[in-house]
Amino acid sequence: MPRALSLTTESIRKEQARQHAEATRLRQRGLLQPIGGALIVIVAVTTATSRPSLGLHGTGAGLSAALAVYLVGAVMWMSDRFISRGLVAQIVLTLTIGAAAVAIAALQPHGASDLAAAAAVWMAVARLPLRPGIGLAALVTGGLVVADDLNGVATGSILSTVLLCALLGLTSHFVKQSRESQDRTEMLLAELHEAREGLAVAAANEERSRIARELHDVLAHALSGAAIQLQGAKLLAERQEAEPRLRGAIDRASELVREGLGDARRAVGALRGERLPTVQELGQLLESFRNDMDLDATLQVEGSARPLSAEASLALYRGAQEALTNVARYAPGASTSVILRYDAERTILTVEDRDAPQAQSGRAGLTGVGGGRGLDGIRERVERAGGHMRAGRTDEGWRVELEVPV
To answer: Helix 3-49 crosses helix 113-127 at what angle (to 10 degrees)?
Structure first.
């Protein structure tokens, strides 16, 4: 597998792990939001029904302002939008909520001040990094102790308030640690999958290299030897003035060996991870057929060209290569058109030859031997890419049509 593709797969897997962890955090926040909403209601109702009462003047006005700031801040803190804000904004909001809770405690010592301040401690530890969170929680707890002491609250009540704040702070810290552990677990699992895939890719590459070596050492060498022997047979036939049919058979065998040798070399290159041809190289392919096989072939591209998957692009290229080879083999002298059409939801390659009456007798063999097997291989390639192939006679010759999805 190419390194770029490996890195892309790695980044996708890690991004999926991050998204899953984020979804888990949001789901957990969703479970805690009803508790937070109930806390806001309890603080609001208790403060509104306790003494001194809310009002527009004096202590009542200060109490009303502190309660309003606390409630608005708590609602903002619970919002999913605010979780994406920066650290400074979160510190300011949490500090504002804690200050409002301390103000409520100072102005209404017998209300819900302890609960409001303890909730601010929870918020500080849960949302902020460890040191700022603990510092802000200690500041709110200290402010609450001072407010209770100035209001003459009994020492036992003050200690119980400190214990409540400490308990909620520790609980919030453990919940936060558990959530972070879940995130780390997600990332570690993603890295484990990547490591396993890396080992599998390495093993597959090693096996591909081994197969490539075997192909090169056995098949390519054997075909090279056969080509040399056929060249010698051709020279011998010419010296002995053998009949044209025998010389033609030797020439045809030499051509098949050369084609097989080229295919073997390309297969070895593919197994070794060399760059594979794409549909963008159809022009060069037709040029080689025109020069090497004197094939009358033209290329026409319809629609706006777009990138295709590597498998689909290679299938179209190999399909054109096989179809042109069959034209040169069974319909020499035929006029051939290659049309590559980009539709909205598919890409179609058509290879059609015309005006080759001398080739009609050779067409019958396509479905059984020679080119027929080549077309079957192309059909398998196209189907693996999610497309399909059609091939058959026309009024003027033969047509091969390959179709792959976008």
So the answer is: 170
